[in-house]
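ENTRY TYPE: paired fold submission
RECORD: A
CONTENT: sequence, then structure tokens
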Amino acid sequence: MNIYRDLSILDWSSKYCSQARFIFKMNGLVFLNPFLLLKFINENPNDRFNLEFKDSIHIADSCAHTDARLPLLFGFIHLNEDVLRHKLSTNQQSGNCLVNKAEYPCDTYPNYLNDNAYLISNDARNLILCTFYRQSKILFPISNIYITGILPEYLHIERYSLINYKINFDSEISCEEFFIETNALQAFACVTNIDLSKNILNIIRFVGNL
């Protein structure tokens, strides 16, 4: 399950990258403009961006002492989405998103972040991991809804939208076209697939010149 993969990544980062103030999660078929990401982190006025943890910690042993001053999650938000109980005949991939009442009894999801790219502060990560360790048998199947929606809602962690940035999900628009035609201060990321990746070098060169 992707959910265990993503939680293991967060766990690894807590043990070996504890000094990092943020963790950026991104899918493998996403082209990111890293300069906009760094610009966002450096320019955000929230005091949380000035906090650092210098010592490595082991989350499983430190749950009760986790200090969450201003836990944060940033990404592209899905608002008030209904839980999908039945496969949609018009969407063959909808079967991957089916959730039954035993897995999640509510009819609407809490606000959550798109799985392709999101930024999580280290204290938000620690809180999420602590909660997972206390109930490590996960019945819910969809990783990003669980990690950026259900657990943060329970923990009162705010999810914020990267409102000034754009991410392209349209398979009809190539990533090269997206980065060329979109304002350089807004073209944050582009989701592609392996069949559209023949222009990878061109895209990388273009993003590097933004």
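RECORD: B
CONTENT: sequence, then structure tokens
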Amino acid sequence: MKLKTLIVLVLLIQSSLIMGQSLNSESSEEDRSSALAGFAIDSQITMFYYTDIGPATKFYGDIIGLEKTLDWSWVIFFQTGPSSFIGLVKEGEGAFHRVQPHNAVMLSLVTNDLDLWYARLKGKDDVTFLKPLGNSGPIRSFMVEDPGGYTVEFFQWLPSPE
């Protein structure tokens, strides 16, 4: 278990350096809440685990169109924002977790181009929609399922009713 933890730590540090992210933030104190003063988060990576990484790679790269920023065959990163990423991990050696029969994790992608994203994905035969485009509370959204059963939500904030 210690070896796996070390591998994950090294992977995160290397990916941070590969993607040009600094391990030390130059953010000012006023940019952070007082509870987190002195603590910086430079980047964010959400890891999803797959038995077969191929279909997920095609889904996030070819179908959704995210930019691949790292490919070590057993782990692949796609950029979702200026400093946020999704990591696809092949189950097995080096993987910290095992694939689960039901995934209780949802990737939420916030965009002001929701209609464009919906039209892009609606035209694809190999996209499974879990929720059609619609309003729900303070957001407008739709949801699709990736090849590993993870929910991917695209949403935009609605103006607050004032």
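NOTES ON RECORD B: Residues 92 and 130 are 29 Å apart (CA to CA). Residues 2-18 form the longest helix (17 residues).
STATUS: closed
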